[in-house]
Every structure is written in C-alpha cells, then in structure tokens.
Design brief:
By secondary structure, the protein is an alpha/beta fold. The chain folds into 2 domains: 177 residues, Rossmann fold (3-Layer(aba) Sandwich), CATH 3.40.50; 67 residues, no CATH class. The chain is 38% helix and 19% strand. It contains 9 helices and 9 strands. It has a 6-stranded mixed sheet with strand order 5-6-7-3-8-9, with helices on both faces. Helix 4 packs across helix 5. The radius of gyration is 19 Å and the shape is globular. The structure holds adenosine-5'-triphosphate (ATP). The site of adenosine-5'-triphosphate has 11 residues, from helix 2.
C-alpha cells in the first residue's frame, strides 16, 4: 500500500472564506460584507480591524454559523460552520447572573459534554488560568467588569475547541485590565496553538495580539490589507514586545491603512 501523498494527508484550513458577500436583507442591493476571500491556517491569530459598520462582526457571525453567506462559501476545518463549534467571547460577557463564577464554568463544561468526574479539576484549572480561583463561589454580578470578562474567556476556553472567535471582548474595560487580559490571551493562544479571530477597533491591540492583521474597507468590507505580524511570541516579555521598533512600524502601517480606507 502506498503512503498517502502530502496533498491527500494535508489538513484543511482552519477557516476558508471563498467569494463571500453577505446581505442581511436579501431584497436589498446593499451588502454588509464582501466580497471577501480569506484562508486561515490552524494556529493563526487573525485580528480584523476596520471602520464601524464595515462588516467585522458579520464576518465573525458567518464563521460562527449564526449567519449563512448570501454568496460564496465558508468552511471551518473543512465543514459547514455550525453554532457551538467555536468558542465565542463578545464585548458584553453574557454570563448567567444567578449562577456563581464556578457555576458558569460548570454549565459550559456540561454543555461541552465533559464527563462529570473531570469537571471540578477542569473548572479549577480554567479559573486559575484567568486568575479567578478565589472568587469561584461569588455570583457574577458581584464581580468587576474585568473579572466578568475573564469568566467569559474561561467559559469560552471550557469548550474544547480549536477555534476562538472574539468580538471586541476588551472594549468596555479599563486600560490596565485590558492590557492584562491581552497579555493572558496572547500567552494562552501561543501555548495552546489554537486558531483565533479577534475583532477590535484598537490598532495597538491588533499589533500586540495578532500573528496576522486584516484591515477591511468601509462598508461593505473587503480586504484592504492582509499583513503578518513579525513579533516574538513564545516566552516574549509583553513590555519588550510593545517597545520593539517593528511594533511601532506595523502600528503606523495599519493605522495609515485604516485612515485611508475611512477617507
Ligand atoms: N442583524 C442585522 N440585521 C440587519 N443589518 C445588520 C445586522 N447586523 C448588522 N447589520 C448591518 O450590517 C453592516 C455591518 O455590520 P457589522 O456589525 O458587521 O459591522 P462592524 O464592522 O462589526 O461594526 P462595529 O465596528 O460598529 O461593531 C452594518 O450596516 C449593520 O447595520
């Protein structure tokens, strides 16, 4: 028996967006997004930036399986996207306020069919990752905004998924908490090697978090810039990364593109 060729054995892309245009109103000529072509390799951390209303959330919703493209196709690891396939984090944490912090994580673990006997250890591990073990018994409404967002991130990580979709998850946070969560997310995505797509309005955040940055044009969003981020990740000190000349150069390049597509 001959060995499979590389071509046959090659894993499909994490995300494959081909010729996608999306209209929320099928009768309207106005598209919310597209046409867009985008292929994301497993392990990439893609950050999407662009003017308000250009279709960033629409792109995430198509990949999450909440919307079906009006034209073109979207595949996630070679399959049709379906809700529940990817971990999701939104700007508002959307927690269950009547449950404790630990209870929110437990629910996610149960929904993800993690065996009951493994849930406690997994919950404690996730809460440690986001620095919330000491507040496990509190109700979520007793937490600060930053803590609530960390619960939402732990909950997204509770669902074993190789794909994380994040829609402006840090937008409502104070600067210090935002920086701390950016550092946690950068480190955890480097450690786990999962694929992430992250939407933000902050160019700084895009350059710090991403391994690749996509700038969309104004509505309907098309890809105006698609650049790799040439910054160290594994074991890199966040302050040093932010101070590198390459960081400043890319921030200037992405900022200039954003201004030119908004003009
Ligand atoms: N559920 C919906 N029904 C109808 N139109 C929608 C819906 N969601 C978004 N739109 C429209 O689609 C376009 C793109 O919206 P989208 O939320 O994807 O943009 P965005 O880039 O994420 O914006 P922002 O940066 O302001 O969050 C906008 O014109 C918006 O009004």
């Amino acid at each position: 028996m001959s060995a499979p060729s590389l071509e046959e054995g090659a894993a499909p892309p994490a995300i494959e967006v081909r010729g996608v245009t999306h209209r929320y109103d099928p009768k309207s000529a106005a598209a919310a997004l597209g046409p867009v072509d985008l292929v994301v390799t497993p392990g990439e951390f893609v950050v999407v930036v662009g003017a308000s209303g250009c279709g960033k959330s629409t792109l995430l919703r198509l990949v999450a399986g909440f919307e079906t493209a009006s034209e073109g196709s979207v595949l996630v690891h070679g399959d049709e996207p379906r809700p529940g396939r990817a971990g999701l984090v939104f700007q508002q944490p959307r927690l269950f306020p009547w449950r404790t912090v630990g209870g929110n994580i437990d629910l996610a673990l149960a929904t993800a069919s993690v065996p009951a006997e493994q849930r406690t250890a997994r919950r404690e591990d996730l809460l440690s990752q986001v620095g919330l073990r000491e507040v496990s018994q509190r109700r979520t409404w007793q937490l600060s905004g930053g803590q609530q967002q960390r619960v939402a991130i732990a909950r997204a990580l509770a669902v074993p998924s190789d794909l994380l979709l994040l829609d402006e998850p840090f937008a409502a946070l104070d600067a210090l908490t935002r920086e701390r969560l950016q550092e946690d997310l950068r480190a955890s995505s480097t450690r786990t090697g999962g694929t992430s797509v992250f939407v933000t309005h902050s160019v700084d955040e895009a350059v710090f978090l991403g391994t690749r940055i996509i700038v969309l044009t104004s509505a309907p969003g098309r890809i105006a810039l698609d650049v790799p981020v040439p910054l160290p990740r594994e074991g890199a000190d966040p302050a040093e990364v932010r101070g590198l000349p390459e960081f400043a150069a890319l921030r200037a390049e992405v900022g200039a593109h954003l201004r030119s597509v908004a003009a």
